[in-house]
Write a structure and sequence with these properties.
single chain; alpha+beta; Alpha-Beta Plaits; four-stranded antiparallel β-sheet; 2 helices; elongated; metal ion binding; metal-binding; HIPP; Heavy-metal-associated domain-containing protein
Length: 103
């Protein structure tokens, strides 16, 4: 069953990041890789997480598994709350005014 694994990988060198990404990409069963959050590497798919950790430790010594969970989308049946649109007041028009000295 596919699962989602989050690795703690706090690397500042671009060379080590590329090597770690190459290790993860070459691993069989990986379907999605996410590195948007700083210091975290999220991997989805069907793979042996301990073997991947072992291979990542060869690239960078300080790699840990932070979280493991089932691969899946969050529930989309959440009720969306619509914010009421603010009412915009129109500026008064002076054409409709009936003033004596503008006739």
């Amino acid at each position: 069953m596919p699962e989602k694994v989050v690795f703690k990988l706090e690397v500042f060198e671009e060379r080590i990041k590329r090597r770690a990404m190459k290790v993860v990409c070459d691993f069989p069963g990986v379907t999605l890789i996410d590195v948007k959050e700083k210091g975290k590497l999220k991997v989805n798919g069907e793979f042996d997480k301990f073997e991947m950790t072992k291979k990542l430790k060869k690239v960078y010594e300080f790699v840990d598994i932070i979280a493991v969970g089932p691969d899946g989308e969050p529930a989309k049946n959440q009720k969306l709350v619509k914010k009421p649109e603010p009412k915009v007041k129109k500026a008064p028009s002076y054409r409709g005014w009936n003033l004596g000295f503008f006739k």
